[in-house]
Amino acid sequence: MNKCSISNDSLKFARNVSGLLILISFLFHSIELAVIMMALLFFAAISMKLNIFYQFYFNFLGKYLKKNLAVSERDKGEVIFAWTMGGLFLLIGLVLIHFNLPTAGWIFILMDSLLMFCAGFLNLCIASIMYAALKKMLEAKKDGSGK
Amino acid sequence: MDRENNGQGKACLNKNCWLVETLGYAPADRCTVCQLRLRKCPFSLFLSTGMSIILVSFAVSYILDKDIPEALMISVFASFLLYGYLFNKSTEDIIESNCSLTKAKNDLEERAQELEHFYRLTVGRELRMSELKKDIEKLKTELKKD
Description:
heterodimer, A: mainly alpha, two-stranded antiparallel ribbon, B: mainly alpha, 3 helices, 73% helix, rod-shaped
């Protein structure tokens, strides 16, 4: 398993701020903000170093608030998958808006915001569950073909 | 409560949870003290029920009005998040207190086992002593007769 070190508090902050900004884009029907957020989420999927909200909290705000930024090991694949899913949801929403289905598009964007907040507040990320399910399925398939 | 402890006196992951087992680590802090299966995890239940309610309410609104009003979207969103926040706080407390209870129960069982062992040892000793006393008396009387 390819692991990476993640600060849980910084991750929570990044999820909540992303959720908040996506919610703002929904409330003001701002496609520009949604596009920017989509780009930021895809950047975050490439590397956590490109996740500006995470880096902001980890390097500045956390230290300023004198928080104990405990770091834990996580599967790199899970992190990439979760942020990609967030960006993908926004992309689907924007595509639907572009193809003249604004209600469905904005619902997708709102759902993305909701799931981000859920991951931030509840610490339960749907994308992590999906990733674990996929991983288990692939491992089962590998074992099946190995036998 | 010690987050590294799962209530059984040793640091380990929740083996009952499919998600923790597959990932190989605890995705949330509470998972280090929780002993539930993912199917019974209050958070996953809340999320699945909440998402179903949201989708059903949107579908019903669309069927009835051929539109989903923004007010409905925002109110559903706000209520889901507010309830989620309150739910999160109380449920984490319940999970932690449940775990403390399990730990206390395990400690108590350990103590009870120790006591039982001690009781068996001491009672056996007393019985053996009384047997030996009887033997001594018997031998004394035999000696007197001789």
